[in-house]
UniProtKB/TrEMBL annotation:
Biased composition (Polar residues): 59-73
Protein name: VCBS repeat protein
Listed SUPFAM superfamilies: Integrin alpha N-terminal domain
Biological process according to GO: carbohydrate metabolic process
Organism classification: Bacteria, Bacillati, Actinomycetota, Actinomycetes, Micrococcales
Region (Disordered): 43-77
Compositional bias of kind Low complexity: 43-57
Superkingdom: Bacteria
Organism field: Lapillicoccus jejuensis
Coiled-coil stretches: none
């Protein structure tokens, strides 16, 4: 538990280093002076100087995030730097800590380096540290700063308030972090969710742990879908757990962290004539995607009980209708949302046959998708050969959507949805084997 200011900080262990190697034999009858002469310091001589004063946070300044009342220079979801100046007149500074819009952790530190952090100072008497934070949303924000010295004393926390305006970047399909570039969601071997941030050049960066209530969730086996509604700057996330009868909609805070989810119950049938087997819940769901980019064409498409259904998406998920997709076996298929492949201004839908590796395109229409499909790849995308086949948007910035694949656990690759015969480019610096799922699709057949 964090201590009061000026009291020894109980959450940190202060170690005292001696120069005595652990394997050195005991020298019986040799005085302290002799030991020092041999290069062996006594425990007393290694102790830090007496310290009864707490460190001080002198100032917090920033031109990227000027204090409240000043003209903002950065916007929501844009990273910026702040300078923290601290000093200590006793045992020396151990570290300086900061957290944006939150409280200091008393146990394990938060996993999100975009909004909090610790800089170790190794006994310095004073220091100025430059830190980078990313405010997730428009409005007022507060950065709390504290310093801790080597004796465990903690400074009075200092608060720095600033304002950022709305993110002016137009919403882009697949963007989770608010920078206008699509990103990937992956699940690691421990079941934790990470964002692989897109660079806009056809690559993704190293994983950033998704923070928030999702920390306690084991994401292995979870079916995922993105929602680009136009009501937010970034994609929201829909999830379904096998055996569950509902969906969860996770609100993205603007930089990729997920707030507590809302329960999504199954919509009613909105067709003029509803079939008797129209699903009453999501218990039979095996695949889902959302199509569109926040326009009237945005829809959730699902495979439930081996049949396809379409639900319009706006402020909420609307009543659904059966979606006839002829010529494909939906009991062994995955849905893919490649965007507008044929250039007619409407999003199209792909169905991947897990067994044969066939990709079939169903062209977008004014009220859904054509029931007649066209094979765009007759092989090469089976689960055995490519366990992951998904699309989150335009990863290269060339105006064409990209297909993301994992080739039998070797590497993540992307290729244009208009050129499926290409080998594609390496997408991630880490091998796909570092993860157990990409966008909810498992990497093992």
């Amino acid at each position: 538990m964090a201590s009061a200011a000026g009291r020894p900080h109980q959450g940190w262990t202060v170690s005292r280093r001696t120069n005595v190697p652990s394997a050195r034999p005991l020298l019986v009858g040799v005085g302290v002076a002799a030991l020092v002469g041999l290069g062996v310091a006594s425990t007393a001589s290694a102790a830090p100087p007496s310290d009864t004063t707490a460190p001080v946070v002198d100032s917090v300044t920033s031109t990227d995030f000027p204090p409240s009342g000043s003209t903002p220079t950065h916007h929501a979801a844009q990273a910026g730097r702040l300078s923290l100046t601290v000093h200590d007149e006793g045992s020396g500074l151990a570290n300086v800590q900061w957290v944006l819009d939150g409280q200091f952790a008393t146990g394990s530190p938060t996993r999100d380096s975009r909004t909090s952090g610790t800089q170790f100072l190794h006994g310095a008497a004073s220091a100025t540290v430059t830190v980078t934070v990313t405010p997730p949303s428009f409005g007022n924000h507060m950065l709390a700063v504290r310093a801790i010295d080597r004796a465990g004393y903690e400074s009075q926390p200092t608060s720095y308030s600033f304002f950022v305006p709305t993110n002016p970047t137009p919403q882009v399909k697949g963007d989770l972090t608010g920078d206008g570039v699509p990103d990937l969601l992956v699940t690691d071997a421990a079941g934790e969710l990470e964002v692989l941030p897109g660079t806009g050049s056809g690559r993704v960066g190293r994983g950033i742990a998704v923070a928030g209530p999702s920390d306690s969730v084991d994401w292995r086996g979870t079916v995922l879908a993105r929602v680009t509604t136009g009501l937010s700057d970034v994609d929201q996330v829909l999830t379904h757990r096998p055996g569950s009868t509902t969906l969860l909609q996770w609100r993205n805070d603007g930089i990729g962290d997920l707030a507590a989810p809302a329960l999504v119950v199954h919509p009613f049938c909105g067709a003029a004539t509803c079939p008797a087997d129209f699903p009453k819940d999501f218990g039979g769901l095996t695949s889902m995607v959302t199509t569109g980019t926040g326009t009237a064409t945005t829809a959730l498409v699902t495979i439930e009980g081996g049949k396809a259904y379409l639900y319009p998406v706006g402020i909420r998920i609307g009543s659904g209708v059966p979606l006839p997709l002829d010529g494909v076996d939906l009991t062994r298929s995955d849905l893919v949302a490649p965007g507008d492949v044929d250039g007619d201004g409407r999003p199209d839908l792909w169905v991947r046959d897990r067994t044969t590796g066939t990709l079939t395109q169903f062209a977008g229409t004014d009220d859904g998708f054509s029931s007649t499909g066209t094979v765009v790849a007759d092989h090469g995308f089976s689960v055995r050969r490519s366990p992951v086949v998904t699309s989150v948007g335009d990863l290269t910035g060339d105006g064409v959507g990209d297909l993301v694949t994992a080739d039998a656990g070797t590497a993540l690759r992307s290729r244009p949805v208009t050129d499926l015969s290409s080998v594609g480019r390496l997408l991630s610096p880490a091998r796909a084997g570092a993860y157990v799922a990409v966008e909810g699709q498992p990497l093992t057949p």
